[in-house]
Amino acid sequence: MIGFNLAGVRSVVALGAHPDDIEIAAGGLLLSLPAGVTVDYVLATGAPTRQAEARAAASAFLSQAAALNFHLHALPDGRLPAHWNETKEIVEAAASLGVPDLVLAPATDDAHQDHRLLATLASTAFRNSLVLHYEIPKWDGDLGRRNIYVPLTPDQGRRKVALLHEHFPSQKARDWWDDEVFLGLARIRGMECRSHYAEAYTVTKAVLTF
Is it the case that residue 58 has pLDDT exceeding 60? Predict the structure, then answer.
């Protein structure tokens, strides 16, 4: 296996369709980012209470030394394809901020229509950055084969889940929101990369430099 060193990452754009998407999918990666990283945190939807949860969560997942910039929008949840132009403007505005070392975006094969649209737009807007497409467990059963892994220690895995519970209380009533779902997926992905826990991503295109 060939590794990509997160220690060299200085700038990140994190794209989420909904509050909690980024943390569910990439919370372990956020916990692993170096101090001093700049993160532009972009959400396409969210009521004020949900956006407040996301603000608190992002701040908790990242180092206190991180420069965290929020770009929060309130397009209708579940209706992003019907707001294609506005969604594209959100993604292009994020891309206009510069050329980040790393972009986090939903997977192109995600069963949720909001996620798929962001994934497609991210791939074209961030042509000069490494885009990691993340996965989110859900009722639709769309988890597939991934090709990039972020190993997590047991402490990191448990810390991620604890922060999810702490900062997204509005989601606790959902029947899939529990330790077994989050840690079960992390354990499977960890097994796949010879780690205890891991998060898994897909890269559709990458350029090697020498």
Answer: yes
pTM over 0.90: yes
Q: Is residue 209's pLDDT more than 80?
A: no
Burial of residue 97 (number of CB atoms within 10 Å: 0-12, 13-18, 19+):
middle
How many whole angstroms separate alpha carbon 149 and alpha carbon 172? 27
Contact by Cβ (8 Å): 143, 137? yes
Structure tokens belonging to residue 49: 């209470």
What the block records as the tokens of 203 is 């890269």
What pLDDT digit, counting tens, does each position of 107-160 carry?
A: 999 999 999 999 999 999 999 999 999 999 999 999 999 999 999 999 999 999
Contact 46, 18 (CB under 8 A): yes
- Phi and psi at 37, nearest 5°, equal -70, 150
Separation between Cα atoms, residue 76 and residue 70, nearest integer Å: 19
Q: With helix as H, strand as E and coil as C, how does 89-149 read?
A: HHHHHHHCCCCCCEEEEECCCCCCHHHHHHHHHHHHHCCCCEEEEECCCCCCCCCCCCCEE
Segment (H or E) for 2: none
Q: Any idea what the Cα angle at residue 207 is, between residues 42 and 29, rounded to 5°?
A: 40
